[in-house]
Amino acid sequence: MDVDEHAEELASALGVDKAEVRSDLENLLSYSVPIDEAKQSVRRKHGGDGGGGDATPTTKDVADVTPEDGNVTVTVRVLSVGQRSIQYQGEEQVIREGEFADETGTISYTAWEDFGFEPGDSITVGNAGVREWDGRPELNVGQSSTVAVETTPVETPYEVGGDSDLVDLRSGDRGRNVEVRVLESEERVIDGRDGETTIRSGVVADETGRLPFTDWKARSELREGHDFRFEDVYVREFRGVPQVNLSEFTTVTPLARDVEVDDEAPRMGIAEAVGSGGLFDVELVGNVLEVRDGSGLIERCPECGRVLQNGQCRSHGDVDGEDDMRVKAIVDDGTGTVTAVLDRDLTEELYGGTMEEAMTAARDAMDKEVVADEIRERIVGREYRVRGNLSVDDYGASVEASEFERASDDPGARATALLAEVRS
Ligand SMILES: [Zn+2]
């Protein structure tokens, strides 16, 4: 339901002008007021009761809750409870988030006050607001809601507690627990909301996969090669891939066992990978259709790192560019295409020479393009295995390659290897 539909519904319930309702709503939403609170406030302004709206909340099964429900009452088991502090209308506020479930399904919630429930509790939540997030309904448990403890446990097939494998985590998850090995870890200073902030970020892995993490409290014990249980993490998308976030409320406990980590990245079809919207560390195999313009020898802006076009940076104008090498190769596996972006090291490997050698070749030919042409000659029409992080934006899908190699099951590669053997 968009603002216009909410305005329509409200205006007809209150018998007032829709344009006026819509402008009131938009004003409140621009201050990040959740839609159901905004609607209540508009109702009050126009003489509606403001409490539950045009109807008393109905009692529903979780699976039947839809974003069209204004307010509902549900009887549920608490699966997980995560805490997070957010900026709300200019003030810091601690909220609780996680999942509820009954026999029919699960639903995410945000509680704006501490109602005191814990994972495993069975409760009836009265007058919870319903909002839509990422196409799914969510419950908003606020001032006008009630929470009552049920003495009979609510039966549910879903696991209580929030323990998760990395492969199952998705952006938007919260109140999750994971057991991981820290593979990479680095302290960094960033320019955050409250000025300079020290954070720790890197990569964690478990038996099922690996994901980037950020610890907003920069805990120094999160060193490479150590195994931990993290309780109460949340997942957000960062640079197109899901990221595990540790907050001040996350507890970190060293593990007595070793976490088995797999060095291989999961291999996927390109269409399936692109359809996921973003993946950390995936392996794709396909034919190189084309080496795009802007490959080979390039120049970057010394200030922002953007690739210069005719000596010009899009942001900084005429600058003294820094030399670099890269390849942007279009890879196709029959199900879809991605652009593989290779850094200087991988590009030098493909070219078969250093950047200095490439620059000498360009000077001799009086044409920079000879380097890109040489790379084209080598890779177009051949099958490659590319590994890296995949992200999808308005310009399409791209993989920031960490590995780019001839596919080993490629007959052409086998022939070349055989020839080389015969010749030596
Ligand atoms: Zn620049």
Automatic annotation (TrEMBL):
The keyword DNA-binding applies. It comes from Halobellus limi. Keywords: DNA-binding. NCBIfam families: PRK07218.1. One of its GO terms (biological process) is double-strand break repair via homologous recombination. The keyword Transmembrane does not apply. GO terms for molecular function: DNA binding. It comes from the Archaea. InterPro entries: NA-bd_OB-fold (IPR012340), SOSS-B (IPR051231). Residues 39-66 are annotated as: Disordered. This is Replication factor A1.
